[in-house]
Amino acid sequence: MLTTSIGHLAVPTSRLLMMIALLVAIVVGGLVGRKRGVVTSDSMINSFLVGLLVARGTFVILYFDSYREAPLSMVDIRDGGFLLLPGIGAALITALWRGWRTPALRRPLGAAILTGVGIWVGMLGAVTGMEASQPGLATESFQRLDGDFVTLANLGPEEEGKPRVVNLWATWCPPCRREMPVLQAAQARETDITFVFANQGESPGQVRDYLIGDKLELENVLLDPMSTLGQVSGSRALPTTLFYDAQGRLADYHLGELSAASLKQKLKRLN
Asked: Given 3.40.30.10, 3.10.180.10, 3.30.450.30, 3.30.70.20, which CATH number is that of 142-268?
Protein backbone atom coordinates (compact mmCIF):
# COMPACT_ATOMS: atom_id res chain seq x y z
CA MET A 1 0.00 0.00 0.00
CA LEU A 2 2.31 2.72 -1.29
CA THR A 3 -0.41 5.37 -1.52
CA THR A 4 -3.60 6.13 0.37
CA SER A 5 -6.56 7.69 -1.41
CA ILE A 6 -8.15 10.77 0.15
CA GLY A 7 -11.01 11.57 -2.18
CA HIS A 8 -9.43 11.92 -5.62
CA LEU A 9 -6.00 12.59 -4.12
CA ALA A 10 -3.37 9.83 -3.82
CA VAL A 11 -1.10 10.55 -0.84
CA PRO A 12 2.12 8.61 -0.06
CA THR A 13 1.24 6.43 2.90
CA SER A 14 4.53 7.05 4.72
CA ARG A 15 4.00 10.84 4.66
CA LEU A 16 0.39 10.49 5.77
CA LEU A 17 1.47 8.40 8.77
CA MET A 18 4.03 11.04 9.76
CA MET A 19 1.39 13.78 9.66
CA ILE A 20 -1.04 11.67 11.70
CA ALA A 21 1.65 11.03 14.32
CA LEU A 22 2.49 14.76 14.45
CA LEU A 23 -1.17 15.74 14.89
CA VAL A 24 -1.67 13.17 17.67
CA ALA A 25 1.50 14.40 19.39
CA ILE A 26 0.26 18.00 19.24
CA VAL A 27 -3.11 16.97 20.72
CA VAL A 28 -1.51 14.97 23.54
CA GLY A 29 0.94 17.77 24.30
CA GLY A 30 -1.93 20.26 24.35
CA LEU A 31 -3.99 18.18 26.77
CA VAL A 32 -1.08 17.64 29.16
CA GLY A 33 0.07 21.23 28.81
CA ARG A 34 -3.38 22.62 29.57
CA LYS A 35 -3.17 21.19 33.06
CA ARG A 36 0.08 23.08 33.57
CA GLY A 37 -1.01 26.25 31.88
CA VAL A 38 1.45 26.01 28.97
CA VAL A 39 1.06 25.72 25.20
CA THR A 40 3.16 23.07 23.43
CA SER A 41 1.92 23.29 19.85
CA ASP A 42 4.43 25.99 18.85
CA SER A 43 7.31 23.98 20.27
CA MET A 44 6.17 20.81 18.50
CA ILE A 45 5.72 22.51 15.14
CA ASN A 46 9.05 24.36 15.44
CA SER A 47 10.84 21.12 16.30
CA PHE A 48 9.25 19.39 13.32
CA LEU A 49 10.26 22.22 10.96
CA VAL A 50 13.85 22.21 12.24
CA GLY A 51 13.98 18.44 11.72
CA LEU A 52 12.61 18.86 8.19
CA LEU A 53 15.21 21.51 7.33
CA VAL A 54 18.07 19.44 8.71
CA ALA A 55 16.86 16.29 6.93
CA ARG A 56 16.78 18.21 3.63
CA GLY A 57 20.00 20.11 4.25
CA THR A 58 22.05 17.00 5.06
CA PHE A 59 20.67 15.27 1.97
CA VAL A 60 21.63 18.22 -0.25
CA ILE A 61 25.14 18.30 1.26
CA LEU A 62 25.59 14.56 0.74
CA TYR A 63 24.45 14.73 -2.90
CA PHE A 64 25.67 18.23 -3.66
CA ASP A 65 27.29 17.19 -6.95
CA SER A 66 23.86 16.27 -8.30
CA TYR A 67 22.48 19.72 -7.44
CA ARG A 68 25.49 21.76 -8.53
CA GLU A 69 24.25 22.45 -12.07
CA ALA A 70 20.76 23.47 -10.91
CA PRO A 71 21.09 25.18 -7.50
CA LEU A 72 17.39 26.09 -7.28
CA SER A 73 16.53 22.38 -7.26
CA MET A 74 17.98 22.22 -3.75
CA VAL A 75 14.77 23.74 -2.41
CA ASP A 76 12.47 21.59 -4.55
CA ILE A 77 11.48 19.04 -1.93
CA ARG A 78 9.18 17.24 -4.35
CA ASP A 79 12.05 14.90 -5.17
CA GLY A 80 11.70 13.40 -1.68
CA GLY A 81 15.36 13.95 -0.82
CA PHE A 82 15.60 13.77 2.98
CA LEU A 83 17.87 11.97 5.44
CA LEU A 84 15.61 10.68 8.18
CA LEU A 85 18.03 10.07 11.06
CA PRO A 86 19.64 13.56 11.09
CA GLY A 87 16.15 15.08 10.84
CA ILE A 88 14.81 13.09 13.79
CA GLY A 89 17.90 13.91 15.84
CA ALA A 90 17.57 17.63 15.13
CA ALA A 91 13.86 17.63 16.00
CA LEU A 92 14.51 15.85 19.33
CA ILE A 93 17.39 18.16 20.23
CA THR A 94 15.23 21.20 19.49
CA ALA A 95 12.41 19.87 21.67
CA LEU A 96 14.82 19.03 24.49
CA TRP A 97 16.32 22.51 24.29
CA ARG A 98 12.87 24.10 24.56
CA GLY A 99 12.11 21.90 27.54
CA TRP A 100 15.41 22.75 29.22
CA ARG A 101 14.72 26.48 28.84
CA THR A 102 11.11 26.20 30.02
CA PRO A 103 10.70 23.59 32.78
CA ALA A 104 6.90 23.72 32.57
CA LEU A 105 7.12 22.35 29.01
CA ARG A 106 9.14 19.28 29.92
CA ARG A 107 6.35 16.90 30.87
CA PRO A 108 3.93 17.96 28.08
CA LEU A 109 6.65 17.82 25.44
CA GLY A 110 7.88 14.46 26.75
CA ALA A 111 4.38 13.02 26.60
CA ALA A 112 3.83 14.42 23.12
CA ILE A 113 7.13 13.11 21.76
CA LEU A 114 6.74 9.64 23.24
CA THR A 115 3.18 9.36 21.95
CA GLY A 116 3.99 10.68 18.48
CA VAL A 117 7.09 8.55 18.00
CA GLY A 118 5.32 5.47 19.35
CA ILE A 119 2.36 5.87 17.01
CA TRP A 120 4.54 6.66 14.01
CA VAL A 121 6.90 3.71 14.57
CA GLY A 122 3.98 1.35 15.17
CA MET A 123 2.01 2.39 12.08
CA LEU A 124 5.11 2.57 9.89
CA GLY A 125 6.19 -0.87 11.05
CA ALA A 126 2.80 -2.33 10.16
CA VAL A 127 2.81 -0.74 6.70
CA THR A 128 6.44 -1.77 6.09
CA GLY A 129 5.52 -5.33 7.03
CA MET A 130 2.67 -5.28 4.53
CA GLU A 131 4.97 -3.94 1.80
CA ALA A 132 7.62 -6.56 2.59
CA SER A 133 5.01 -9.29 2.13
CA GLN A 134 4.16 -8.07 -1.36
CA PRO A 135 5.10 -10.43 -4.21
CA GLY A 136 8.24 -9.66 -6.17
CA LEU A 137 8.35 -8.87 -9.85
CA ALA A 138 4.95 -9.08 -11.50
CA THR A 139 4.52 -12.28 -13.49
CA GLU A 140 2.11 -10.83 -16.07
CA SER A 141 3.25 -10.38 -19.67
CA PHE A 142 3.58 -6.92 -21.15
CA GLN A 143 4.03 -5.88 -24.75
CA ARG A 144 7.12 -4.04 -25.92
CA LEU A 145 6.79 -1.25 -28.45
CA ASP A 146 8.19 -3.64 -31.07
CA GLY A 147 5.33 -6.05 -30.43
CA ASP A 148 7.08 -8.80 -28.43
CA PHE A 149 5.60 -9.93 -25.09
CA VAL A 150 7.87 -10.21 -22.04
CA THR A 151 7.66 -10.34 -18.27
CA LEU A 152 9.62 -8.15 -15.88
CA ALA A 153 11.70 -11.16 -14.88
CA ASN A 154 12.40 -12.28 -18.45
CA LEU A 155 13.31 -9.25 -20.52
CA GLY A 156 16.09 -11.08 -22.32
CA PRO A 157 19.24 -13.09 -21.55
CA GLU A 158 21.37 -9.93 -21.27
CA GLU A 159 19.18 -8.68 -18.40
CA GLU A 160 19.24 -11.84 -16.26
CA GLY A 161 20.48 -11.49 -12.68
CA LYS A 162 20.38 -7.70 -12.66
CA PRO A 163 18.49 -5.43 -10.25
CA ARG A 164 15.54 -3.67 -11.85
CA VAL A 165 14.20 -0.14 -11.75
CA VAL A 166 10.60 -0.11 -12.96
CA ASN A 167 9.17 3.32 -13.75
CA LEU A 168 5.39 3.71 -14.08
CA TRP A 169 4.58 6.72 -16.24
CA ALA A 170 2.28 8.31 -18.80
CA THR A 171 2.73 10.97 -21.46
CA TRP A 172 0.04 13.23 -19.91
CA CYS A 173 1.89 13.34 -16.56
CA PRO A 174 4.16 16.47 -16.28
CA PRO A 175 6.45 15.11 -13.52
CA CYS A 176 6.83 11.88 -15.52
CA ARG A 177 8.07 13.88 -18.48
CA ARG A 178 10.39 16.02 -16.35
CA GLU A 179 12.14 13.03 -14.80
CA MET A 180 12.62 11.11 -18.08
CA PRO A 181 15.99 12.74 -18.94
CA VAL A 182 17.26 11.81 -15.45
CA LEU A 183 16.20 8.19 -15.92
CA GLN A 184 17.56 8.07 -19.47
CA ALA A 185 20.96 9.28 -18.26
CA ALA A 186 20.94 6.71 -15.46
CA GLN A 187 20.03 3.92 -17.89
CA ALA A 188 23.02 4.80 -20.07
CA ARG A 189 25.34 5.10 -17.06
CA GLU A 190 24.24 2.23 -14.79
CA THR A 191 24.75 -0.69 -17.15
CA ASP A 192 24.61 -3.25 -14.32
CA ILE A 193 21.00 -2.26 -13.55
CA THR A 194 18.00 -2.88 -15.81
CA PHE A 195 15.65 0.06 -16.29
CA VAL A 196 12.07 -0.60 -17.39
CA PHE A 197 9.63 2.08 -18.50
CA ALA A 198 6.08 0.78 -18.13
CA ASN A 199 3.59 3.14 -19.73
CA GLN A 200 0.24 3.17 -17.96
CA GLY A 201 -2.88 2.95 -20.09
CA GLU A 202 -1.80 4.57 -23.37
CA SER A 203 -1.57 3.34 -26.95
CA PRO A 204 1.65 2.42 -28.77
CA GLY A 205 1.20 5.42 -31.05
CA GLN A 206 0.97 7.88 -28.16
CA VAL A 207 4.11 6.44 -26.58
CA ARG A 208 6.10 6.46 -29.84
CA ASP A 209 5.08 10.04 -30.64
CA TYR A 210 6.15 11.21 -27.21
CA LEU A 211 9.53 9.45 -27.31
CA ILE A 212 10.26 10.79 -30.79
CA GLY A 213 9.06 14.31 -29.95
CA ASP A 214 11.22 14.52 -26.82
CA LYS A 215 14.17 12.75 -28.51
CA LEU A 216 14.31 10.04 -25.87
CA GLU A 217 16.15 6.79 -26.48
CA LEU A 218 14.89 4.36 -23.86
CA GLU A 219 15.29 0.62 -23.66
CA ASN A 220 12.67 -1.73 -22.24
CA VAL A 221 9.62 0.44 -22.91
CA LEU A 222 6.57 -1.67 -22.08
CA LEU A 223 2.85 -1.11 -22.49
CA ASP A 224 0.62 -1.67 -19.47
CA PRO A 225 -2.83 -0.81 -20.89
CA MET A 226 -4.77 -1.89 -17.78
CA SER A 227 -2.32 -0.25 -15.31
CA THR A 228 -1.68 -3.67 -13.82
CA LEU A 229 1.64 -2.70 -12.25
CA GLY A 230 0.05 0.21 -10.41
CA GLN A 231 -2.59 -2.09 -8.97
CA VAL A 232 -0.08 -4.78 -8.00
CA SER A 233 2.26 -2.29 -6.30
CA GLY A 234 -0.57 -0.50 -4.49
CA SER A 235 0.19 2.88 -6.02
CA ARG A 236 -2.34 5.12 -7.73
CA ALA A 237 0.13 7.96 -8.22
CA LEU A 238 2.25 8.76 -11.26
CA PRO A 239 5.10 8.67 -11.56
CA THR A 240 5.91 5.69 -9.35
CA THR A 241 9.34 4.07 -9.48
CA LEU A 242 9.93 0.61 -8.03
CA PHE A 243 13.40 -0.67 -7.16
CA TYR A 244 13.93 -4.45 -7.16
CA ASP A 245 17.10 -6.24 -6.08
CA ALA A 246 18.80 -8.95 -8.13
CA GLN A 247 16.52 -11.56 -6.54
CA GLY A 248 13.40 -9.73 -7.68
CA ARG A 249 12.44 -8.45 -4.22
CA LEU A 250 11.08 -4.93 -3.77
CA ALA A 251 13.94 -3.05 -2.10
CA ASP A 252 12.60 0.51 -2.28
CA TYR A 253 10.20 2.79 -4.09
CA HIS A 254 9.69 6.45 -4.92
CA LEU A 255 6.43 8.29 -5.48
CA GLY A 256 6.59 11.46 -7.52
CA GLU A 257 9.32 13.06 -9.58
CA LEU A 258 12.87 11.79 -9.21
CA SER A 259 15.85 14.11 -9.25
CA ALA A 260 19.37 12.95 -10.07
CA ALA A 261 20.14 13.07 -6.33
CA SER A 262 17.10 11.13 -5.12
CA LEU A 263 17.63 8.51 -7.86
CA LYS A 264 21.27 8.12 -6.84
CA GLN A 265 20.18 7.56 -3.23
CA LYS A 266 17.70 4.85 -4.24
CA LEU A 267 20.17 3.08 -6.52
CA LYS A 268 22.58 2.68 -3.60
CA ARG A 269 20.17 0.18 -2.07
CA LEU A 270 20.50 -2.04 -5.13
CA ASN A 271 24.31 -2.31 -4.98
From this structure: 3.40.30.10
The length of the chain, given as a count of residues? 271
pTM over 0.90: no
- Residues 271/87/178/162 CA torsion (nearest 10 deg): 10
Q: Report pLDDT digits (tens) over 34-88.
A: 988 899 999 999 999 999 999 999 999 999 999 988 888 899 888 999 999 999 9
The closest of 171, 53, 36, 5 to 99, measured between CA atoms, is 36
- What is the spatial distance between Cα 271 and Cα 101, in angstroms, rounded to a whole number? 45
C-beta of residue 132 within 8 angstroms of C-beta of residue 160: no
Q: Write down the domain spans for the chain.
A: 3-132, 142-268
Residue 16 dihedral angles phi and psi, to the nearest 5°: -65, -40
Q: Report pLDDT digits (tens) over 98-127.
A: 999 999 999 999 999 999 999 988 887 777
Report the distance separating Cα 126 and Cα 50, nearest Å. 27
